[in-house]
Q: What sequence folds into this?
C-alpha cells in the first residue's frame, strides 16, 4: 500500500467554524472546508430563508442549529430523517429552555422535530449532565457569548468526549472569545467572534481509516497533506493507538507519513479507552478482527445513540468474521478474534452509518472480497473514500 492523499478538512472543525462565522456576522472563505454531507447540510441551513429546515441524518447540524436558532430573530421548524426523530434532544432543549429559550416539540416529547421561536437570551448559571452528547455542550458554549450574561456551565458527572468540548473552546478562543474552565465549571463571558481562522486542517477521523489500512497491509506507506501537528482534534490520538498495532507515524511541515512497521510482533490482546475519542471505536474494532488481536474497548457510552446503535452493529457485522463480540453495560466492547478469513467473501451491512462502511471496507485486505451494502453512506463524512482506496490500489466496483 503506497500513495499520497489530500483529505478534506475536519468535519467537526468545519461545522463549528460555520456556526461561529455566522454568529460573528463576518462572511469569509474557509479553505479546505469539509466536503461532507453533514457540512453541506449545515451550510445550506445557515443560508436558508425557509421557516422549515430539514437536516436529514446530520446529527451535528440538528444539535448546533437548535442552539443557534434559539438566539436568532426567527421562527424555525427544525426536522430530520426518521432516524433523526429517534435520537433524543431533550437534554439540550431542557438546558436552552432553562436559559429562556422557546422550543416546542412537534411530535414526540424529547425528540425532533422541534419549533424554535428565537429571541435574545439572558444566560446565567446552568448545570448539565456531562455524560450526554458533547455536541449538546458545544452547541451551548458556541452561542454563550451572545447571551446578555454569558454562561457559567457546570458539568455534572463523568465527561464524555471531552476532546470535542476542548476543540470547541479552543476554536472559540482563536476566534476571539476566551473562557475559564475551573473544576467542572466553564465560564464564558459576553463577547463577539472575530474571523481569524482561514483554513481547516484535514480530518483525523477520516485519517484513522488509513491507519487501519496500513495495519492490515503487509507493508506500505501513505502521505497525507494539510495535517496540523498541534491539531485541535482529539482523534489525533490514533497515532498512539496504532503505534501499538504496528503502524508508525510522524508529521513534518504539514505532511503526515504513516508506515507499516517491519518485523513488528503484534500483542495477543490490547485495551484502549475511547471515552475521549468515540469515533475511533469502529476503526479499532475492525482492525482487531483483521489482525486477529483480542481487544477490549472502554468508554463507549455514547455509541448506542449515534447514526445507529454502533455497539450492536459492530457485534453483528464483526461476528461474520468469526470473532466473538461481547457488549458490556453499553459501555465496553470485548473482541475475541476468530480464525483467519482470507478465503471468505463478506457482505456487510452499514445500518445507514458512514463509519460502518469506512471501517469494514479495509477488511478486504484480509478477505477474498468485501461487499458494502450502501456505498453512498460515506458521503456523510468522507466523500472521496472510494476514490482514495483506488489510489491505494484497491479494486473497487460500484453497483447501481
A:
Amino acid at each position: 500500500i503506497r500513495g499520497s492523499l489530500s483529505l478534506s478538512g475536519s468535519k467537526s472543525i468545519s461545522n463549528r467554524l460555520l456556526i461561529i462565522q455566522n454568529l460573528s456576522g463576518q462572511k469569509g472563505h474557509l479553505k479546505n472546508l469539509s466536503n461532507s454531507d453533514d457540512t453541506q447540510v449545515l451550510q445550506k441551513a445557515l443560508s436558508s430563508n425557509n421557516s422549515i429546515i430539514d437536516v436529514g441524518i446530520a446529527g451535528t447540524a440538528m444539535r448546533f442549529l437548535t442552539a443557534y436558532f434559539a438566539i436568532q430573530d426567527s421562527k424555525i421548524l427544525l426536522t430530520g430523517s426518521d432516524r433523526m426523530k429517534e435520537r433524543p434532544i431533550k437534554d439540550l432543549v431542557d438546558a436552552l429552555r432553562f436559559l429562556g429559550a422557546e422550543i416546542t416539540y412537534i411530535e414526540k416529547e424529547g425528540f425532533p422535530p422541534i419549533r424554535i421561536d428565537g429571541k435574545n437570551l439572558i444566560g446565567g448559571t446552568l448545570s448539565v449532565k456531562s455524560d450526554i452528547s458533547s455536541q449538546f455542550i458545544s452547541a451551548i458554549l458556541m452561542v454563550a457569548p451572545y447571551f446578555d450574561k454569558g454562561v457559567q456551565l457546570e458539568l455534572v458527572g463523568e465527561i464524555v468526549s471531552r476532546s470535542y468540548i476542548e476543540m470547541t473552546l479552543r476554536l472559540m478562543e482563536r476566534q476571539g472569545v476566551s473562557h475559564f474552565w475551573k473544576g467542572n465549571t466553564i465560564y464564558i463571558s459576553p463577547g463577539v467572534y472575530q474571523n481569524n481562522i482561514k483554513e481547516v486542517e484535514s480530518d483525523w477521523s477520516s485519517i484513522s481509516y488509513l491507519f487501519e489500512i496500513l495495519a492490515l497491509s503487509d507493508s506500505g506507506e501513505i502521505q497525507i497533506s494539510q495535517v496540523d501537528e498541534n491539531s485541535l482534534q482529539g482523534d489525533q490520538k490514533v497515532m498512539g493507538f496504532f503505534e501499538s498495532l504496528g503502524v508508525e507515524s510522524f508529521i513534518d511541515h504539514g505532511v503526515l507519513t504513516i508506515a507499516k512497521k517491519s518485523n513488528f510482533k503484534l500483542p495477543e490482546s490490547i485495551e484502549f479507552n475511547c471515552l475521549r475519542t468515540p469515533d475511533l471505536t469502529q476503526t479499532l474494532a475492525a482492525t482487531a478482527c483483521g489482525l486477529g488481536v483480542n481487544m477490549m474497548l472502554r468508554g463507549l457510552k455514547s455509541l448506542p445513540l449515534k447514526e445507529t446503535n454502533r455497539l450492536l452493529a459492530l457485534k453483528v457485522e464483526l461476528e461474520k468474521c468469526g470473532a466473538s463480540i461481547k457488549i458490556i453495560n453499553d459501555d465496553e466492547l470485548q473482541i475475541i478474534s476468530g480464525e483467519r478469513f482470507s478465503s471468505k467473501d463478506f457482505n456487510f451491512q452499514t445500518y445507514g452509518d458512514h463509519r460502518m462502511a469506512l471501517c469494514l471496507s479495509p477488511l478486504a485486505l484480509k478477505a477474498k472480497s468485501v461487499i458494502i451494502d450502501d456505498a453512498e453512506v460515506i458521503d456523510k463524512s468522507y466523500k472521496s473514500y472510494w476514490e482514495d482506496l483506488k489510489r491505494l490500489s484497491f479494486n473497487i466496483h460500484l453497483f447501481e
The two ends are 28 Å apart (CA to CA).
